[in-house]
Amino acid sequence: MQSARTPETISLCILGNSDVELWGMSPATRIERAFSRAGIKNTIAESDLIENTGPVILVRGDAVLDEPLTGHLAACENLMILGNGSGNPVPVAAHVSADNGCKTADAIKSEAKTALSGVKIQSPGDIDANYWKALRKRETPYALVINHENSSDVLWRIFMGTYKGATDFITKHVWPRPAYHTTKLIAPIGITPNMVTSLSAVMVVLAFFLFMQGNYGWGLAAAWMMTFLDTVDGKLARVTLTSSPWGNVFDHGIDLIHPPFWYWAWAAGLSVAGTDFTSNTIYWLLAVIIGGYVLQRLIEGLAIMAFGIEIHIWRPVDTFFRQITARRNPNLAILTISAIAGRPDYGLYAVAAWTALCLVLHSLQLVQAWQEKRKNGTLSSWLTKP
Prior knowledge:
The protein has helices at 27-37, 67-75, 101-109, 151-160, 169-174, 176-186, 193-212, 216-239, 245-272, 279-307, 316-324, 328-340, 344-376; strands at 11-15, 42-44, 56-60, 63-65, 79-85, 88-96, 120-122, 131-132, 137-138, 143-145. The chain is α/β, with parallel strands linked by helices. The protein has two domains: 7-126, Spore Coat Polysaccharide Biosynthesis Protein SpsA, Chain A; 168-384, Four Helix Bundle (Hemerythrin (Met), subunit A) (Up-down Bundle). The strands form three sheets. It has a six-stranded mixed sheet with strand order 2-1-3-6-5-7, sandwiched between helices. Strands 4-10 form a two-stranded antiparallel sheet. The longest helix is centred in the C-terminal third of the chain and has 33 residues, at 344-376. The radius of gyration is 25 Å and the shape is elongated. The relative contact order is 0.09.
């Protein structure tokens, strides 16, 4: 398989169209957006294939391609990708030379797996694109043909394909269904990911002031709404292919900074709520919680610099531990249970204890990782292995 020329020399040709809506756009619009993100911005009509003189990517107008496949297809010439149409593998996209453009277009439209000269035919599972580093997971990318009968299944597959493999149990198991329906509702009406992130920032501030006033019920409602919106904004960006560098900074910046302020506000609200807490006790608990939070994030950053991978995806046990480690959502679950029980002070003790234990475990992970690197020279994620 030959490497393709620069993206600027490659044209995109969409064959046919579909009236099924995908997150507020047609499949063809989504295809154009996906390949534009891969650097291929020149689109030609099927009628222009005869006169086309450069490499071309041909895609069915009713096809839905996972992001790793668009990047792989853009990088590799003389490749045809099979997808599922009515349950059977059919050609959905190809990257070929100008000489093969018309013949490949006919093969794709007729759903014929025609062996063209020098063109390799592969299914998504045959392509070495299963490990998606950005989402910390191993998953076979999808290549689908969408219609009115299977649109719900395809939308769900696209949505779940945006989830990270290593994340907390709330994000992984509680939020998917409500986040899916919310994303499906707001995508067609023009609400952008940054709008959702802005609303989540408002919830961060609101929860802070409510916690500080000892109003834990409404504070928790605002805090959980923020965590939900934090799921929705990322999923909305990925399914609509509208993520941006500023959006990433905005979203992750809020995620990184706000938890310590919530813990401080929770502690400040205990005296308002009438809980008998000494100042020294609160200072020690906050030192453990906030100090432990900062040190854990530093350990995660140090692991990336030293080993080239996130510590949460080194071994299966590390990925499991990421679901419950002392980060915002698991800690918020602890605080919620304590508030329901009428003892928000116990929640602060529990978060401090869990943070301290998790700090020890993270430190142990780091030591084990260094030993592994000294022994074998490198670390690799279990997700990269077959």
